From TrEMBL:
Cofactor note: Binds 1 FAD per dimer.
Keyword annotations from UniProtKB, A to Z: Electron transport, FAD, Flavoprotein, Transport
Gene designation per UniProt: acrA
Coiled coil segments of this chain: none
Positions that bind FAD: 216, 241-242, 255-259, 272-279, 293
Annotated GO biological process: fatty acid beta-oxidation using acyl-CoA dehydrogenase
Keyword Cell division annotated: no
Protein name according to UniProt: Acryloyl-CoA reductase electron transfer subunit beta
Organism field: Caloramator mitchellensis
Annotated family: Belongs to the ETF alpha-subunit/FixB family.
UniProt cross-references to PROSITE patterns, sorted A to Z: ETF_ALPHA
Length: 328
């Protein structure tokens, strides 16, 4: 019996969510007194296996095959399902990235089990030892805790940024096992001819330490220039509520919340954002929150560490000038 984390790598680089899942997976495995196993599929990916051990895995199973060099639904599903059927893990965690969202359901169907997608909380029921998988339901208006009592493995996908990355422990030792994936070319119905990277200047707000976020209260696209200036001065990036994204003032990549990204920066400055539950779901784990809002009763004000009541167009320029003065 073991708890598995499917470690995601792209071109040999581990995705941060895999480390986040190892942190949570470690806690779950300890509660069950089971091993934590990372499953790493790819081609010539052995060099990153040690990082998985240092972040909490007891064992790493490497599924190494030239046909696993690029992700394909067929190849990865077959290779991982085979080893899962053989070793029968109790639990499988997958990051809810584009790849994880594709792989998770396919793998669950192959293993004839259930999958809870986009979990924001994971725990173990003390009595039944079942996995408790919590996720927003009904448009985020309530949190549902889901169990999978009759089938194994219990499977969950978790969005990047929900859990913290555990500190690496360089003294940790573990078993690294290379397993030959039993796949052949005819198993894979998709041919990856080439990978074209988007030339668009994409932001990854999930990695940022400082986020200056704007909502409907910013009022227009030009207003976001002010937020960008503050973000730049603080070495951060710009985030947004869905209202601002839907209005076309900023790209979807910047959206924080239930249908956007989950972030946990050191500092989150919310400007002209009311704090709807779907927005809070994506940023309430931030270390320090400053909210700027005209309305002192806006929900964001009650979760903020510092709530500034007033017009953001008066407060932000003053803040920017103060910081510039401090820096000079
Ligand atoms: P509003 O709620 O309109 O708030 C604007 C705020 O700006 C007000 O509090 C106002 O007092 C303040 N304000 C106005 N002018 C100024 C000024 N000059 N200075 C200072 N303050 C000012 N939302 C998300 O953000 N992310 C999501 O991922 C997301 N997913 C969703 C998923 C579902 C299924 C659903 C149903 C909704 C989702 N939403 C999401 C939408 C969410 O419910 C809210 O509608 C949205 O977050 C509101 O955005 P807002 O706070 O910018 O706008």
């Amino acid at each position: 019996m073991s708890v598995w984390v499917i470690a995601e790598q792209r071109e040999g680089t581990l995705q941060k969510v895999s480390l986040e899942l190892l942190g949570k997976g470690r806690q779950i495995a300890d509660k069950l007194e089971e091993k934590l196993v990372a499953v790493l599929a790819g081609y010539e990916v052995e060099k990153i296996a040690d990082t998985l051990i240092k972040h909490g895995a007891d064992e790493v199973i490497i599924l190494d095959h030239i046909l696993l060099k690029n992700y394909t639904t067929d190849g990865y599903t077959k290779a991982i399902a085979q080893i899962a059927m053989e070793r029968k893990p109790e639990i499988i965690f997958i990051g809810a990235t584009n790849i994880g969202r594709d792989l998770g359901p396919r793998l669950a169907a192959r293993l004839k089990t259930g999958l809870t997608a986009d979990c924001t909380g994971l725990d173990i029921d003390e009595n039944t030892k079942n996995l408790l998988m919590t996720r927003p339901a009904f448009g985020g208006n309530l949190m549902a805790t889901i169990e999978c009592p009759n089938h194994r493995p219990q499977m969950a996908t978790v969005r990047p940024g929900v859990f913290a990355v555990p500190c690496a422990d360089d003294r940790r030792k573990g078993k690294i096992e290379k397993v030959a994936a039993q796949i052949k070319e005819s198993d894979i119905r998709t041919v990856v001819e080439k990978i074209v990277k988007s030339l668009e200047d994409k932001v990854d707000i999930t990695e940022a330490k400082v986020i200056v976020s704007g909502g409907r209260g910013v009022g227009n696209e030009e207003g976001f220039a002010l937020l960008k200036e503050l973000a730049h001065l603080l070495g951060g990036v710009v985030g947004a509520s869905r209202a601002a994204v839907d209005a076309g003032w900023i790209g979807k990549d910047h959206q924080v919340g239930q249908t956007g990204k989950t972030v946990r920066p050191n500092l989150y400055i919310a400007c002209g954002i009311s704090g709807a539950i779907q927005h809070l779901a994506g940023m309430q784990e931030s270390d320090f929150i400053i909210a700027i809002n005209k309305d002192e009763t806006a929900p964001i004000m009650s979760i903020a560490d510092v709530a500034l009541v007033g017009d953001l167009y008066k407060i932000l320029p003053e803040l920017i000038n103060e910081i510039k003065g401090y820096k000079d």
